[in-house]
Amino acid sequence: MIKTILIIIISVSIFGLLIFVIVRNLMKRKIDELVNNQKKKSNKL
Hints:
The protein is mainly alpha-helical. Helices cover 96% and strands 0% of the residues. The protein has 1 helix and no strands.
């Protein structure tokens, strides 16, 4: 019983960590893109 619970907890933790890393990288890429667009706009003015 305890073994099954530990396996479930570890699986969910690994899955959550994986999702967190993917989302963080996507957000970072999007923020960098927005910052670059803003810099380009300010350079044109």
